Amino acid sequence: MHEIVFKEENFNIVRTSFVQRGVIQPKVYTWYILHSDRHRIFKGTMARIKVGESQKKIYIEDLSYDIHAPKMYKRLPLVHAQPSWQIQLICQCLLKKGIVVHRERAFKGLKNQFDKSLLIDISFQINERWYFIEYHGVQHYFKKGVKLQRFRNILRNMEVKREWCHENQIPYLEIPFFRQNDITEILETFIADILEDDLEQKKLDV
Fold first, then answer.
1. Predicted confidence (pLDDT) at residue 149 exceeds the cutoff of 70
2. Phi/psi of residue 107, each to 5°?
3. DSSP β-bridge partners for residue 64
4. Residue 175 — left, alpha, or beta (φ > 0 → left; ψ -120 to 50 → alpha)?
């Protein structure tokens, strides 16, 4: 008898852990996910759910399938918006390398002109050092469908992030929309450079 193999997009069970102050907690919770939500979450990434009147960050530990899942578990109360396919691709490339990915994370001191936290599209750590990746769509370069002041704020926020990363010595990668077909190649080069720099640093520390 042949074993039934389920495609990832058909998984309906997700195991998660809460994240507190950037630390993944040990207790694991199991939820049922609607098919319409399946494309919004990926193993090894972060998401947000609604708990009572507040939102909590969770880490996606694993995905699986059970025909009885709707009766066995509560539905995952997702509140995080679906990322673009470009962001999803970046996350998937990093996850394949065993890198834990953080989506839209705030960092102390990184704020806009209105003193509100600016979120980083994708952040991750290698050997306790942070690395940032931002994907810049068309709206980051052309005033399309937004007021002039909104466009100016987008440009200003881009520059704030660049300056903040420079001041805090955080490697920062921007991927513009016109290079979206090169995302995989760009990431391979970025990670290779990270690993090479890390190796050189270890030699100096010896």
1. yes
2. -130, 140
3. 13
4. beta
Query: Which neighbouring-strand residues pair with 175?
Result: 135
- DSSP secondary structure, the chain, as one string: -PPP---GGG--EEEEEEEETTEE-S--EEEE--GGGGGG--TT-EEEEEETTEEEEEEEEEEE--TTHHHHSPBP-B-SPPPPHHHHHHHHHHHHTT---EEEEEEEEEE-TTS-EEEEEEEEEETTEEEEEEEE-GGGTS--SS-HHHHHHHHHHHHHHHHHHHHTT--EEEEEGGGGGGHHHHHHHHHHHHHHHHHHHHHHH-
Q: With cut-offs at 50, 70 and 90, classify the pLDDT of residue 80.
A: low
| Residue the block writes with tokens 């705030």 | 106
Phi and psi for 130 in degrees, rounded to 5?
A: -80, 145
Residues for the chain: how many in total? 206
| List of long-range contacts for 79-82, beta carbons under 8 Å, 24+ apart | 79/48, 79/49, 79/50, 79/55, 80/40, 80/47, 80/48, 80/49, 80/104, 82/39, 82/40
The more confident residue out of 202 and 33 is 33
